[in-house]
Amino acid sequence: MRRASRNPSEQPSLAERIRHEMDSFTPSEKRAAHLLLSHYPFAGLDTVAEFAARAGISAPSVLRFVTRLGFGGFPDFQKHLREELEAQLLSPLAKAGPTDKSQGAPALASFADAVIGNLKATVENIAPAEFDAVVALLSDPRQRVHLTGGRFTGALARYAESHLRIVRSHVDFIEGQPALWRDRMIEIGRRDVIVAFDIRRYQEDVIALCETATKQGATVVLLTDPWLSPIARVARHVLPAHVAAPSNWDSSAGLLLLTEALVAAVTKRLWDTAKPRMEAVERLRSERT
Amino acid sequence: MRRASRNPSEQPSLAERIRHEMDSFTPSEKRAAHLLLSHYPFAGLDTVAEFAARAGISAPSVLRFVTRLGFGGFPDFQKHLREELEAQLLSPLAKAGPTDKSQGAPALASFADAVIGNLKATVENIAPAEFDAVVALLSDPRQRVHLTGGRFTGALARYAESHLRIVRSHVDFIEGQPALWRDRMIEIGRRDVIVAFDIRRYQEDVIALCETATKQGATVVLLTDPWLSPIARVARHVLPAHVAAPSNWDSSAGLLLLTEALVAAVTKRLWDTAKPRMEAVERLRSERT
DNA sequence: GTTGTTTTGAAATTTCTGATACAGGTTTTC
DNA sequence: GAAAACCTGTATCAGAAATTTCAAAACAAC
Questions:
Q1: For residue A12, what pLDDT is reported?
Q2: Which of A17, A163, A232, A260 is most buried, judged by most C-beta within 10 A?
Q3: What is the CA radius of gyration of chain A?
């Protein structure tokens, strides 16, 4: 056990220790640990009863947890949290070096760094007017909205659909395979919006779908990577997202960010009609149970 | 709108109020006030007795002080301090993003800030051992991997499936509805891994699926929010992600981050077998064209 | 299956904290 | 200078919170 320096910038934070010992905990202890880490350290400043209730375990389990961490009792534990918090808040260094990426899962941390970089780059490269125009389009109740995507991005289209379909009507998901959408195309026209997700290894069938829809007079919104899918040629609006990651696969986090931001904006804009819809859905869900 | 503006720059801090009302305090109250301000807000987080001793006054005087500030009692007072502290500590993240949110789409920029904050918090709260254990599990060719999720998170499960299915064999997606998976359960056993996505408004059918699978001897991996789905009780591994966003919906970006990081790690680990598989898929795709 | 071990929560117990009543002292006011 | 109003601390109480005990349940090993 080497004796680390006692300098204030160093943080042998309790959180770190917990993370490190996580696998040696019992199931109940893990629940306590997760709760604490998720709201570190505030979750631990409540009473034992409150903490136990939030973690979904019993009070004694909480006590055993803190004892296991080496504290004499719950008050001791809380005192430590307070002191740690105070030290961290007072130390200006703490703010400078936020993430202790020293050890642990370097893979996860560096991956996250890359993704965060993507998000920032994505936001900066989006034309605000373009974003707003898409929001306006998706908020127009007269338009019918269809979502589609490729092998991987299809999941994002589904994600968008599952939210939008609650917020407004006339929302659906179109499978990528031509055989599945060819027939529908006769009904597609000026009042339809196609939101297409398509990134590198652009997918023929999605491209074909958008081209066909455009010919019918539909409006195409494209979410793609910075190299732009060929769909950009026919798309009315294009929102590119950075996708590079330290992986053999691209990261879709930027696309998800745009998707969620769009959904949030549309929900806000249609709030008067969206709210009762959301409540109705909630009611139906509870009835089923 | 019940809640006053949540804007971070605003500071209706209790400290400010105390400073303002300072001259209307009695001598004892002033001592209490000074102590509190000198170590704000930590001095107030101790017990009444401790606080009284440090301030050099009696416990009842402390009680009168907090009552005078408008709190129902000492616990109320402490709760307020904790909440204020928490809000203050979390806000720097929001400010951190110096993206030029001045113009056009402030919605997008602030949304991105919140998401980035989520990602950081998510990474910090993941136990490396837990992450690694999940990677090992998903990299085990003897295990069969099944992915599932709820209304919204189902899309993430599909996203994971579409990647994993290329990297390794025995990967599939299970629809949430019990009618669709009940039959399959007879084949689920010790050699099966269920990766479940479940966030707030935890979904009964997904919970039921995991419980059933656990009884059959399967291993459950759970990706959830910090409040932990009930599935955590039966899950072998739990990876929580922060989901709060300035929206009527939660953000799944943290879950996506974890998903992509897992896929990246598994791909790397299984690279020897994954590479030929990926090439084969590529070949098939080009042939079809 | 059966046994031994570990984990867990309900309930009883103990400790301690926050709250209150009251009396002594101080300042204010006429 | 006396009375009133006001602070303040001591002693005490009520209640809540942490802790311990113990038996049931889950789990693992055989």
A1: 57
A2: A260
A3: 25
Give tens-digit pLDDT for A65-94: 999 999 989 999 999 998 888 877 765 433
Contact A108 B126 (CB under 8 A): yes
Q: Per-residue pLDDT tens for B83-118? A: 888 776 654 333 333 333 333 346 788 899 899 999
The distance from CA B40 to its chain's CA centroid, rounded to whole angstroms, is: 28
Three-class SS state of A260: helix
Which candidate, A37, A268, A254, A4, places its Cα nearest to that of A132?
Answer: A268
pLDDT tens-digit map of A267-283: 999 999 999 998 888 88
Q: Which of A98, A224, A56 is nearest to B202 (CA)?
A: A56
Segment A96-113 mean pLDDT? 59
pLDDT in tens, A176-202: 888 888 888 999 999 999 999 999 888
pLDDT band at A161 (very low <50, low <70, confident <90, very high): very high
Of B7, B229, B45, B82, nearest to A35 by C-alpha is B229
Strand D, CB < 7 A, residues 69-88 of B: 75
Residue reference for tokens 């109705």: A280
Q: Name the residue in chain A with its Cα closest to that of B156.
A: A155
Q: Which nucleotides of D are covered by protein (CB under 7 A)?
A: 6-11, 16-22
> Is the per-residue pLDDT at A160 higher than 60?
yes
Whether residues A20 and B128 touch (CB distance < 8 A) is answered with yes
CA atoms within 13 A on the CB side of B45: 23
Q: Is the peptide bond before B8 cis (omega within 30 degrees of 0)?
A: no
Other CB atoms within 10 Å distance of the CB of residue B230: 17
Q: At what angle do helices A106-125 and A253-269 cross, to 10 degrees?
A: 50
Helix (H) or strand (E) holding B129: helix B128-138
d(CA B227, CA B225): 5
